[in-house]
Amino acid sequence: MVEAAKPAVVEAATPVAEAPKPAVAEATKSTLLEVLPSVAASMDSTQVSRRVPEAPTAAPKTSLPAASPSQQADDRIAASFAAGSVVSPGFGDDEADHVETVAFRVGRALPKVNQVPAPPLPITTATPSVAREESTERRSERFAPSMPVAHIAAHFTDAAPKPASTSFRSLLQRSVALRPRG
Amino acid sequence: MATRLHPLASAVTVDLSHGRIELKTPSVDRAVAVPTVWLARAIAALGDELVPLAKSLADSVANDAAIILDGTADPTPEEVAYAIALALGQRGLGTCAFERYGDALTLLWNSPPSTHADFHRFAATLVAQVVSEVTRVQTQAAVLSTHADGITLFLGSEAACDLVRERAGRGESGPQILATLLGGASA
Lengths: 182, 187
Description:
Chain A is mainly alpha-helical. Chain A has helices at 2-13, 22-35, 37-41, 45-51, 59-62, 69-83, 93-107, 128-133, 168-176, and one strand at 140-143. Among the domains of chain A are: 2-61, no CATH class; 69-105, no CATH class.
């Protein structure tokens, strides 16, 4: 139904503000009578003239400036920037969503986890120099608390058992056994 | 290490209505908050009297550390570090970690009350006493080096600690001192 009415509306809207002349309506009617007798039989010139004012008017188009659509968009965005307002993408809602989705995907293009460089080890300024000067025979180690002290405040259930480490007492005894030269 | 549920959250209670600060570690101790600068000055003014003061505090810290270790027969360095760090931390005395260079074992005292030279003797006495009590291995300590927010103390024999003190007093760096020490014969 809508499709059938569309040609008449569009043709009538072309002269924009003027109502269609009876002669034009009659000519249209006679043409349609030849092609679509059944449609023409139900067609009445008064209906056409009545529908003209309701037609989706194309008048604003005729009054648009000569600038291209892209130029208008640029101008609008520039004006928005100048006004300090949020710049709309200038599309319909669906299209704007699409634009945002694309931008979101681009923003998500992060490196893979295994490509992220590992953070530096928490070694104090006092630590490394000896370790570097030492040969591989003299390994240096750091023994931090077996868990972060601050975590004790939380309700702590036992952590997973760690693999057995060196005995602290034996390390201490080796250090105590060191004697200065001479 | 079953006492990991040690209630650090309630270790310090500030009772403003009575103007009291209490340490619940694990016995209740009254505490007074003073700037650490004052503390370092007071300790330095004690002279030799700082030794019994340090040992008294060490007894308390070592006792808490032993409770945290919960009778672990032969604790690992990480476990000992945890126990002592927690016992220190509950008193606002910082935390600690151990480092090993060859056979030389050091204790890194992070966030101590002071890193000033006036505090070094007290720090060494305290650390030596705590480690000795926790491990039952007679140990001495000497400040090897200091950094922005910590002190590194060597743990070893009296003779080795004398050497560390002497060389540190001459301005040698910690790594240099350790290199000298490790270059000697190990018994």
